[in-house]
Amino acid sequence: MQKLAALLVEARNAECEALLRQNSALADVQLAYVLKDTCLVGWSSEPTRALAAASALKLLSQLNSDSEIAALRAWGAGLEAR
């Protein structure tokens, strides 16, 4: 899960979406929390990485309609707005 999250953060949007589709079995709430944690850890020291993780959360929420993922996506949108 950590490896997929790291790949998503490093990928461009189209690549990120392709990675999520290729790994759809892992595109779940657990992945969303790993991405959220990446946002938190990187916010003060690596803001670009944090924003990339928030972007990956957005794409994840578009592929998986789980309400918990939607909530984490909304949280990530707050970071993007700052």
Strand runs, count = 0
Helix count from the secondary structure assignment: 5
Distance linking N and C termini: 27 Å
Mean pLDDT: 93
H/E element sequence: HHHHH
Q: Rough shape? A: globular
Global structural class: mainly alpha
Largest sheet: none
Q: What features would you highlight for this structure?
A:
82 residues, 5 helices
Produce the secondary structure layout:
Layout: H1 2-10, H2 13-22, H3 29-45, H4 47-63, H5 67-81
Helix pairs in contact: 1-2, 1-3, 1-4, 2-4, 3-4, 3-5, 4-5
Question: In words, what does this structure look like?
Answer:
This protein is 83% helix and 0% strand. By secondary structure, the chain is an all-alpha fold. Helix 4 (47-63) packs antiparallel against helix 5 (67-81). The N and C termini lie far apart (27 Å).
How would you sum up this structure in a few lines?
This protein has helices at 2-10, 13-22, 29-45, 47-63, 67-81. By secondary structure, the chain is an all-alpha fold.
